Amino acid sequence: MATRVGPSSALDTLDTFPKLLLHHAKARGDRPAIREKDLGIWQTWTWKRFADEVRALACGLAEQGLKRGDHLALVCDNRPRLYAMLCATQCLGAVPVALYQDSAAAEMTFPIQNAEITHALAEDQEQVDKLLEILPQCPKLRHIYYDDPRGMRHYKQPELMAYERLIELGRASFRRDPAFIEGEIAKGVADDPAAMFFTSGTTGVPKGVVLTHHALIDRSRAAAEFEGLTDRDVVLAYLPPAWIGQNIFSYAQPFVTGYCICCPESAETVMVDMREIGPSYYFAPPRVLENLLTQVSIRMEDAGAVKRWLYRVFMNLAQRVGGALLDGQSVGPLDRLLYAIGDFIIYAPLRNVLGMGRVRVAYTAGEAIGPDLFKFYRSIGINLKQLYGSTETSVFVCIQPNGQVKADTVGPAVPGVELKFTPQRELLIRSPGLFKEYYKNPQATLEAKDAEGWFRTGDAGYVDPDGHLKIIDRVKDVGALADGTLFAPKYLENKLKFFPYIQEAVAFGDKREEVCAFINIDMEAVGNWAERRNMPYSGYVDLATRDEVNELLRECVEKVNADLAQEPELANSQIHRFLTLHKALDADDEELTRTRKVRRGFIAEKYATLIDALYSGKESVHIEAKVRYEDGRTGSISADLKIRGAKTFPPAAAKKAA
Q1: Shared-domain flag, residues 550 and 506
Q2: Nearest-angstrom CA–CA distance, 433 and 588
Q3: Residue 5 counted as domain residue
Q4: pLDDT in tens, 270-325
Q5: Are 285 and 367 in contact (CB under 8 A)?
Q6: Burial of 282 (C-beta count, 10 Å sphere; 0-12/13-18/19+)
Q7: Is 321 left (phi over 0), alpha (psi -120 to 50) or beta?
Q8: How many domains, in total, are found in the chain?
Q9: Average pLDDT over residues 47-63
Q10: Nearest-5° angle of CA 392, CA 396, CA 399?
Q11: What global pTM score does this model have?
Q12: In a domain, 435, yes or no
C-alpha cells in the first residue's frame, strides 16, 4: 500500500535530511530509492543501500577533515553517488554546493572562492581538469574526489582521490566506530544550513543562497500533501543538480515522501529512458517542453498525408475540449466520444512517445510559458500545471490546483505562504521556505528580505479575482512604449517561441515608439523545413540569413501581432521590425545564464549596433562577433543581417487577419 504524506505523519519529527534517510532505511529499506541506467541496464539502490553508502561516505569525509560548517562542491550529473555525497556532507553538518557541470573553469572560481570550498566531488576527467585549472586561485580546495576513473590513471596530484578509495576509508572508519556518524546526525537541527545554491547572475555577480533543512523540508512536504504524492511515485532526475528545482524533485521531496528517482544514462538517452520508466510525477521548464513539441511537429511534417490529416483534425478537437475534459468540466456527448477515439489513435500514442503515458502530475516553471504551448500538453491529456517560486523561496510559492488551471496564472499561494504587492506591482512573499541569507553578503540579504520576513521577488504581477497569481514580467524589464502602452518583453518573447522554428527571442521597446526583436532560429526545425524543400545550406549562419527562412519567420511574427491586437493592454506592442541573429544565444558567450535565461542587459550592450539598426530604418547591418566554444577556444563570426518589417494590425482587424 502506498504511504501518503500527511500532517500527522511521524516524519514531522524528523527535521533534517540525514534523519529522514535513516527513517526510510528502516521503514522501507527494501524499496527502491534511486535507479540509474548504466550500459543500458537499470541498476537499483534501495533505501537501505543508500543509507549504508551515505554513512560510509560521511565517515570517509570526516577522516579527510570535512567538519561542521565546511562546504563541499558537487560537479556531477544526476547519479546515485552524487546524492549519496550530498547527504553524507549534511550528516557532518557541512554544506553541499552543487555547481553547473557545463560551466567553464573560470565560472567555477567565484563560487568556490566565495563559499571557501574545501572538498569537491567531480564526476569525471573533464570536471577534474576544470578544478585543477583553477586550483591556484582556490587555495582552500585541498580534496578532490572523482567518480569515473576513465582517463585518470596518470593523474598524480596529491589533492585527488578516487570515490572508491574514499568509501573504503569510510567503511573502515565506520567499523571502528559506528556510533560516531549516528552522533553527528543527531547533532543536526532544522535551522542548520542544508544546501547552498548560487543564483544565475542575470544582473551581476552570483549570490550564494543558503537554505535550511526546515525551509526545504517544510515546502517539500506542503507541496507533496497538496498533490497527494506517495512513496509509489516515480520521478526522472535529468536537469542540472545545481538548479534548485532539480534538487527539490530529486532530493528534498523523495526524502519527505519516500518515492523513487531515476537517473538517465546520458542527456542523449533522456527520452528513451523516460519512456522506459514511465514517471508519474514530472517537471520540465518551458524550454524542454518547447523542444519536445518541436520534435513532434517535425515528425508530423514528415508523416504521410493521411496521418497528417488525422493529426490536424483530432488536435483541433483536443484544443477545443481536451482541457475542459481534464478539468472535469461538462463536454457534449459527441465531443466526448470523438475525444475518446482521438485518445486511442492520437493522444495516447503521443503521450507514450513523449514518455508521459503515466504522468499524474506535471509541472512547468522557471520562466513564463506560452499559453499555446501550455494548452497543447493539457489538450492531449497531460495534467501539466504551472508553479511559481525561486531559489530563495525553496521553489513552492504558488501551485495550480487540479480543476483550476489557467494558462495565464500560476495558481493561488501554497498553504503557509503570504503574498502582497508594492505600489510598483512588485510581488513580496513571506513563507516558511525563505532562504536564511545570501552567503557573506549581508547587504544583499537586507535588500532582499526585510525585518518582517518579506522577500522582494523582483517580479511584477497581481492576484486575479479567483485568487490566482499572475506574473507579468520582471519588474526591471516591465516598461512602457513612448505612448504609454505596457511593454512586457518576456510575454512577447514567449509568444514567439511557441513556433517550432524559433528557439529564442529578445524584444526591445521600452521608451521607444515601437517594438523590435532579435530572433534565433531552431536549427533542427528550420533545417528539417529547408531539407523538405530541397533548400541547400552550409550551416547555421547560412540558414539564418536565407530569404526563405526569414519569410517563414515573418509569418510567425505576424501571427503573434494578430494575437496581440486582440489584447487591449498590449495591442500597441506589436513587433514592427525584426532581424534573425547570426548565431544562437549561448551561455558560454554570457548571453544566457546556465539556467538558459536571457541576460537582457548584456545582450542590449553587446548588440547595441544591431538595435540601433532596427530603429534607424536600415535594411541590413554587418556584424562581426566573437564566440566561445565549449573547449574554451574563441573564434569569430561575420554576417550581413537583413532587417525585416512585419505587418501590424489594428484591434478591429485582428480576427479577420487571424
Answers
A1: yes
A2: 32
A3: no
A4: 999 999 999 999 999 888 898 888 888 888 888 888 999 999 999 999 999 999 99
A5: yes
A6: buried
A7: alpha
A8: 3
A9: 98
A10: 145
A11: 0.81
A12: no
